[in-house]
Amino acid sequence: MTERLAGKVAIVTGGTSGIGHTIVEAFRRHGATVVFTGRNAERGAKVAQATGGIFVAADAADPDHAERVVVRALEIAPHIDILVNNAGGPGHRGGVEKTSAMHLNESIAVHLSAPMLMTARAAPCMRTAGSGSVINICSVAGKRVGAPYLAYSVAKAALLQLTRCAAVELGRHKIRVNSVSPGFIATAIHTSCLDVDPARAEMIAGAMARMFVSRQALSRTGGPEEVAEAALFLASEESRFITGTDIVVDGGMMWGQYGLV
């Protein structure tokens, strides 16, 4: 297999589970040195052992996390080539009347402020190197309405705009900034916030999958590897003339299923 990221150094936030874990695996498989973050040290150690990545304990909600992560990456290599802002989760479930300022600020801190701070801290390293690729993991929830997680949807919509703004600003330094917007991807994140026993969580996950598949053009669930492949493309030289773009990986959820009106 061709190592598409040979010699590259990547930072992946939220790399201890789900999509982030799969991105760490994919980048390592293609030759990158990967520094990844997460809040759970035990999970981080297991992923590091399984993938060969380097774990840094960090909470995306902490404003100081960017400095700590980038400093650690620069201790390993003198350059940073790729940044994947992936850390996050659905957070509070509720609409306008049931979403407090605290709920909104929590989601913005993780899904908007954290990617901005990471990008701001990594950009000078990329500028010095003369190139770089920033990839923000967004969501179709930031493009369409109707999701019951208003704070999450609003923060992801803002992250899409941050992607475009940063692409225009950093392009003159040969730094590309793009995003990937997954739809329903089969990971544990959809039930991790539920206070139920594992058997019931599995049943709920199955029901959720069937519901989302019924709203897609492609009648199957997506896997985290399909998001990782999009991120790998944006991280590699294959996308060297692409910036400010969002790749939607949703099985056609954005457009619905034929025959449904």
Summarize the structure in short.
The protein is an alpha/beta fold. It has one domain (9-185, 223-249): 3-Layer(aba) Sandwich (Rossmann fold). It contains 8 helices and 7 strands, in the order βαβαβαβαβαβαααβ.
Tell me the domain tally. 1
Strand order of the largest sheet: 3-2-1-4-5-6-7
Rounded Rg: 18 Å
Judging by the overall fold, what is the CATH architecture?
3-Layer(aba) Sandwich
**Quaternary organization:** single chain
Q: What's the CATH class, please?
A: Alpha Beta
The name CATH uses for the topology is Rossmann fold
Total strand count, please?
A: 7
How would you classify the helix and strand content by structural class?
alpha/beta
End-to-end CA span: 44 Å
Fraction of residues in helix: 40-55%
Count of helix runs: 8
What overall form do the CA principal axes indicate?
globular
Low-confidence stretches: none
In terms of DSSP E residues, the strand content is 5-15%
Task: Give an overview of the whole structure.
With 261 residues, this protein is of the alpha/beta class. It has one domain (9-185, 223-249): 3-Layer(aba) Sandwich (Rossmann fold). Helices cover 45% and strands 14% of the residues. It is built from eight helices and seven strands. It has helices spanning 18-29, 41-51, 65-76, 101-129, 150-170, 189-192, 198-213, 224-235; strands at residues 9-12, 33-38, 54-57, 82-85, 132-137, 175-182, 246-249. The protein has a seven-stranded parallel beta sheet, sandwiched between helices. β4, α4 (101-129) and β5 form a beta-alpha-beta unit. α1 packs across α8 and α3 (65-76) runs parallel beside α4. The longest helix has 29 residues, at 101-129. It is globular and about 50 Å long. The N and C termini lie far apart (44 Å).
